[in-house]
Amino acid sequence: MLGSIRLRYPPTRKALVISKIGGISNLNGYQMAITNISGQNQIWCGFNEAGGPWPQFSHTGGSVPVGVWSYISCTYDQNAISLFVNGQPVGAAGVGLHTVTNTTSNVKIGSDDVGQQFYSGLIDEPFIAGRALSGAELLGIFNAGSAGICHTCTPPPPNMTQWWPGDGNANDIQGPTFENGTLNGATFEPGLVDQAFSFDGVNDYVDVGGTPIELASSPFTVDFWMKTPDASHVAHAYLVGKSHPDGGLGWDIRVANNAITVVGVNGWSANITSDASITPNAWHHVGLTSNGSTVELYINGVLKGSCPRAAISSTANPLRFGFTTNFGGLPFHGLLDEIEMEFRQMQTCVYAFAIERCQLVERKRRSK
Fold this sequence. Notes:
With 368 residues, this protein is mainly beta. The protein has helices spanning 135-143, 349-367; strands at 2-7, 15-21, 29-37, 40-47, 57-61, 70-76, 80-85, 88-94, 108-109, 121-127, 160-164, 181-184, 187-190, 195-200, 205-208, 220-227, 237-244, 249-256, 259-263, 270-273, 284-290, 294-299, 302-308, 319-321, 333-342.
């Protein structure tokens, strides 16, 4: 449950923001409210299981001032109730795995079916999601400001030539020449948008055959989202590339020591290695872009390294995700989502990061 609010007066009792519970004889469901404890306005969030007392599980925290807009959120991830103000965590309580009671009561904004706890002030953009949004997602919505969660997006770049979203297949949805991939053990899990390619770290990979995708001396951009439970291993794990590592041909992008390494864009070596920006169990946007003379690596829109550009050698090995043959490193363990290629340099991958985020919002809206 989340939304923007502006309190008119400090509440003398719970001021309900969002509620779905029955009347006084059927107190089952869930609520989010503002309550005043020792002179401080705080978020209160609670729910119960069928047959349990009301409220069976709840938590209070944060500080909500009077007369200004605040973006408040309450999430339950089947383990903890977590509270946020303006995208920042303000408290959490571990309550364990439970099933929130589903009642026939209507969702109400500013009150409930009991009709005794009314909100005084403004409530804007309230909504209920079918999953627990992450702290990063909530902060992103707050940072969008008045644009909300449905802001106008920049269209995909005109020179985008390949786009593998990983939504249940290995198809390229961009064209004009569609380079569909073949799954070799890779499966799918919930991704940043819809589904993502899932790799077990043993032998999974995706093989993109068809017309050879050679970068040679052309400007290019390759970008994707990645998430891994562990990137601290010393040996490189293969992410995306078209390379024959044993032969020193082609190019690829790898992860090790919580850092991204780019190989083959300026001779066959580790041309660029980022700082330790890759944290476990978090989504990271990786972008590699070149104007033909230099290559730049970005993580989450921030420049992490660059090098001169040489002509990239060709190889008969196809473009692959997750692992490749003739590679002495590790298969990747984790998720890859929204893999894209463009035959031009992005002005900066800060821009690419912004476009990517915008595309994701648009695709989420279209998928509902």
